Every structure is written in C-alpha cells, then in structure tokens.
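Checklist before submission:
- one chain only
- standard amino acids only
- sequence pasted in full

Submission:
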Amino acid sequence: MFEIDPALLDEIAQGEVQAIREGLADPEMRKDPRFLDRVRKFLKDNDLIVSPRTKGVADIQQQIERQRIPIFDDVKDGVDIDRLN
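Returned file contents:
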C-alpha cells in the first residue's frame, strides 16, 4: 500500500464538503434523491451524525412541513395505470 500526502487528502475532503454545501444550497439539487443519497453516504462514511438539534436541521424540517401535499380529488373511480385510454 502507498502513502498519500495528508495535505492532499485534506484538500480532497474540503472539495467534497464544498460540493455538498453548494448542492444543498441549490433548490433543485436539494430535492434530488440521488444527491441526497450521496450526502447520506458521505455522512455515514465519515461517521458524521445529524440530529434534530444539529444547526439547520430544524429549518429544513419547517420548510418540508410548509410544502403542500397535493390532493387528487378529481379522480372519482381511480385510475387504471395498466390500461391505456
């Protein structure tokens, strides 16, 4: 096995964190399940724990709770997704 310069590892780690921060700041990216999966994997791989007391988590929860869930009441008898018109 070979040695990697610790300064290079730090630079790579800082780049990963910066990319995650930029993605979370982007309204479209922060809703993308693939991106969020990568964020969760990064947190898990680096033994980082996020809880409701973590700074910013409460704000994210409030934003989610404010979003309206659509109600599809215009479909009376249901929709058969296996049958074309």
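Reviewer check: Residues 1-50 form one domain.
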